[in-house]
Amino acid sequence: MKAGMLIGAFLTAAVALVARPVAAQRYEFEVLGKPVVSRGLSFRFVTQDPDGHYVAWTGYEGTDRQALLGVRTDNGELIWADLADFGRSHIRMIKAPDGDVCMYSGNPGHFLKYDVSKRELIDLGVPAKPASYWLDSAVGPDGKFYVGSYPKTHLVCLDPKTGKIEGLGRIATDEREWYIIRTAVSDDNVAYCGVGLHHVELWAYDTKTGSKRQILPEELTKLQGSPDVWTGTDGKVYGRAGDTEFLCTPDGIRVGETKSARRLPRDMTAGDKIVGSINAEGKLELTDVNTREVMRLQTDYEGDPAHIYSVSCERDGKIWGGSGKPASTFYYDTKTGELVNVGRVSGGRIQIYDTISLPQGLFLSSYTGASLDFYDPGGPAHKSTKRHLATLSKTHMQERPYQWALGPDGMLYIGTRPVKGHLGGALVRVNPDDFSVTVWRNVIPNQSVLYVAPVPDTHEMFCTSSISGGSSAIATEKEGCVFLWDIKREEVSFRAEPVPGTTSYGMVARGRTGIIYGLAGDKYYAFDPKARTVVFVGDLPGQARQFPGLCREPIGPKGLIYGFASDALFAIDPADHSLNVVARHESFEGARGPYVTQDGVVYYGSGPILMRCRPAPSRT
């Protein structure tokens, strides 16, 4: 749909407000478009139908669907085999000896077979529970298909010849280890599983006897992360942990021995054509085997729209935000209605958490690696510039940077969650003039620092925490907290628990009265930083699941604090801390944002779609 097109189904009216009644207000909801669409597509292998047609296959893990996707190489027609009923996860796949497609997908993971001639999907079963995430797979010399998973490091196996599935058991014995990241199988049928990410482990699993052993020495298992493994050109498995390369054996490793990875032949031939990828125009590249002439076949593929991960700020009449997977920056021009995908300007490649606009330019925070970046979009006569400021995973074991806030000292502050398997987040300061970065880790022992807001009256920063650490970390604390950070002394000056029992405190915003408003599960609170006391606790109209869930700036003449909870857009009035639901809409469920302009126009992401919500003109 074109930007600005009014969607009739997206008209709604405000409901009665929680704390006190207000005049009903009608809102118009507009679909502005999908800012980030990945149009390229690569394939895993080619099969042939009984009628002679060839089909190129790949796994499609899009925001709109989870499916096996085939493209006919003669006419560009798409073939979809929907996998959504099995649950969302990654798709690992191989071509079976009989020419069909075998996959591991779903939550929990299912082995599946797709009969390419009958266009029929067959569920072979669930070999292990729980299993919801995986990145890699391997094929043994006997043709068996191996996958290692999260969160219990299960190794599972499928024999494509017989359809037999096996759960080979949990590989890691340390409760802190949740991931099998890489798997490789040697020609003597030993599966080597790279385990992490709390610390590095490498397990050798004998597929004949079922025996297993952790083979890395202590000096390597002290490393954080996971090892890489690959099957070499000689059929043996080699690995790398940190800077150390080695040969893997069932009893240990031999440091310094390595070979390049074996390149398995890819079956990408469709008759007399070699199948390439689909380009940004939706055209499939086909190369003639004999003449090497390249032709491009128009397909029906429209691309994979990326989820909007954040809608964060306004600069020069443009609303800026970022997507997740890939981490692309985009803007919506409020003057022209143009929606522009700027592309990747952040160091992180998966999710852009926040973007803040300062006179110097835009500052971005992203995952992976807790990447902090600067981007100056420039004016009409200037070229854009970008600068990478820090990758905190490399320097301070931090992984996810959440919400920027400009401090009373003119510095930027942001909180972070640590790397997978570890506890102890950080408070980070960035000088926007010279781009220097200062990190204070574990300021609240064994807790992550999530959200921050300035307290100019006391020259402090208000921060929130969570007992959880990086994914797979085992929490040691029972309750999260909020705290004040003394900017001059560089230390925690006060700590409190506004909503007892809360394990993770959400987004915060400072009102014009100086009161801090924050989210805590299905409640919100008001905190007076000068009196160092909680002055109000109230109920949200739903669960504050959305990220970030609260607009960081007070809006309009009343200084309202806007936010999302479930399907509701609400506003907190600082005059009496009351919360009013201003609109309900199905597009608010799971929404990202909001960013609200001073005249009350709301921008937010709903899946891959940028939405706008604004008061409807008064009826005369």
Blueprint (SSEs and pairs):
Layout: E1 5-6, E2 12-13, E3 26-33, E4 37-38, E5 45-48, E6 54-61, E7 66-72, E8 78-82, E9 92-95, E10 101-105, E11 110-115, E12 120-125, E13 131-133, E14 137-139, E15 145-148, E16 150-151, E17 154-159, E18 164-170, E19 179-185, E20 190-196, E21 201-206, E22 212-214, H1 218-221, E23 228-231, E24 237-241, E25 244-249, E26 252-255, E27 269-270, E28 273-278, E29 283-288, E30 294-298, E31 304-305, E32 307-315, E33 318-324, E34 329-333, E35 339-343, E36 351-358, E37 361-367, E38 371-376, E39 385-391, H2 392-396, E40 398-401, E41 405-406, E42 412-418, E43 426-430, E44 437-441, E45 448-455, E46 460-466, E47 482-486, E48 491-496, E49 508-510, E50 516-520, E51 523-528, E52 533-539, E53 561-565, E54 568-573, E55 578-584, E56 592-596, E57 602-606, E58 609-615
Antiparallel strand pairs: 1-3, 2-3, 3-58, 4-31, 5-6, 6-7, 7-8, 9-10, 10-11, 11-12, 13-16, 14-15, 15-17, 17-18, 19-20, 20-21, 21-22, 23-24, 24-25, 25-26, 27-28, 28-29, 29-30, 32-33, 33-34, 34-35, 36-37, 37-38, 38-39, 40-42, 41-42, 42-43, 43-44, 45-46, 46-47, 47-48, 49-50, 50-51, 51-52, 53-54, ...
Description:
With 620 residues, this protein is mainly beta. The protein has a domain at 304-549: Methylamine Dehydrogenase, Chain H. It has two helices and 58 strands. The longest helix has 5 residues, at 392-396. The two termini are 30 Å apart.
